[in-house]
Amino acid sequence: MVWGTDDWPMHLHDAGRSGFSDTLIELPLSQHWLYVSASAPEAAWAPPIPHAVEGNLEINRLDFDLAFQVAASDEAVYFGSSSDDQVRCLDSRSGKVRWSFFADGPVRLGPSLDAGRLYFGSDDGFVYCLDARSGSVIWKRLLGFDRTRHLGNGRLISRWPVRSGILVRDGIAYCGAGVFPHEGIILCALEAESGEVIWMNDTLGEQDTNRSRLAPQGYLLANEKYLYVPSGRDLPAAFYRKDGKKRFHAKASWRADGIVGGTYGVLVEDQLITGANQNVVFDAESGKSGEGWFHGRRIVVRGEIAYFATTEWIAAVDRKKYAAGSIKLHKMRQR
Fold this sequence. Notes:
Elements: E1 70-72, E2 76-80, E3 86-91, E4 97-102, E5 112-114, E6 117-121, E7 126-131, E8 137-142, E9 149-152, E10 155-158, E11 167-169, E12 172-177, E13 186-191, E14 197-201, E15 221-222, E16 226-231, E17 234-240, E18 246-249, H1 254-257, E19 265-268, E20 271-274, E21 278-283, E22 289-295, E23 298-302, E24 305-309, E25 314-318, H2 319-333
Antiparallel strand pairs: 1-2, 2-3, 3-4, 5-6, 6-7, 7-8, 9-10, 11-12, 12-13, 13-14, 15-16, 16-17, 17-18, 19-20, 20-21, 21-22, 23-24, 24-25
């Protein structure tokens, strides 16, 4: 990453996952230090089959743990490991390890930094809050229904691993746990300082009459009103931040929209943009799709400009004009 005066407190910088910093980069860049992990990331899920199904070639939608993602302050860089279950703090000036902390399972998503505290979740089913300077535990909380463990993704893990990351906003830490809806899914809002529960929604499994598709895997997003929960290979769902009640779970047609869903999203004004094979634009209030389709695997938006990357190139486009053009093209393809 490029180090500067602006902190990078969570993956993709902020609660909207903008991926943008106001820090000016002076070229040419030069390497100050290099840290090489003793072990590479161990992804939870295998990649999809490498050939098209009904004309659609699926790109990996469960890629949230393919790399170690960092949070950074002026003094330190923090990251977790899915291979040795540690969270490490590096000195931002030298790259030397200041401290490390062992969880009891893989740490698959990057930590979040807020008010001198470091937050992360683990496949052991716990949410952790550490002192960012010393690495000592301030509090930890089990999100699962019990301490049951089983073999999963090649490791001994909780039946309800925490794979949502921890999103801290306005003094509240939001998190989710669980992979299989029929075994129960938990969403939770905790007091960031103490870990006390503000609300918990644990009624999201298939025990309901309405069959659930939700499995919180990927980085949470939030605006003033809603918490948005990526759902692995499926589309995200939205919940009210004040009480955890569900607002919507986005839907799309495979035949009309192609392969959609994934573990990343971006909030831009009144829109939620998400996807892996392509970036689909949803109305952030209603969850309705059809407001645009952006080519590429990842997208960053700043003002009127959208930057997106494919496996081969990067482009910058006028966001609103490109979206309008994509809608016209989409309608033509449906004829």
